[in-house]
Write a structure and sequence with these properties.
This protein is mostly beta strands. Helices cover 10% and strands 68% of the residues.
Length: 160
């Protein structure tokens, strides 16, 4: 739990300072992440809470296009609130430029509703997209098989 709080605090700091680092004008970004497979799933009860570790893979389209892998850690609280954080790597194309992007994400939502909202921050990359940074709002749903579809919108910019 302490690690989760540290990650959330770090993301808050990134959000607070993100506007300072803009090298050029940001561009609107929108699209969809669609999980196509869960490659690892583990549950660990801890008192009245449950911890989840999950790895997924899928496709993304829109401003970002390509494939992604995601590592997610979540806690389901006794009230049924799911709080998650994770890291996504995306073999992505943006504005015709390709490479690997790293996104850090946090989300939360009620377990029974199978919906969630959160933020993703593009923290770095390699290849032709190495200079891209951005902040995305996430709105997702989870189907009965546990596969998520996530709409994203926000801003990206190329710092290179």
């Amino acid at each position: 739990m302490h690690r989760f709080i540290s990650v959330v605090a770090g993301i808050g700091l990134l959000l607070a300072t993100n506007g300072v680092a803009l090298a050029g004008p940001p561009a609107a970004a929108s699209g969809t992440f669609a999980v196509s497979a869960i490659t690892h799933f583990a549950l660990r009860p801890a008192g009245a809470a449950t911890f989840i570790e999950q790895r997924t893979e899928g496709v993304v389209w829109g401003t970002l296009s390509g494939t992604f892998e995601d590592e997610l850690q979540a806690v389901v609280t006794p009230s049924g609130l799911v709080i998650a954080q994770g890291t996504m790597t995306c073999a992505c194309t943006i504005d015709g430029k390709s490479g690997m992007l790293t996104l850090v994400q946090v989300s939360r939502g009620p377990l029974e509703a199978q919906t969630f909202e959160g933020k993703a921050i593009i923290t770095g990359g390699s290849g032709a997209v190495s200079g891209y940074r951005g902040v995305l709002d996430l709105h997702g749903t989870v189907d009965p098989n546990g596969l998520a579809t996530i709409q994203y919108s926000g801003q990206v910019h190329d710092q290179s």
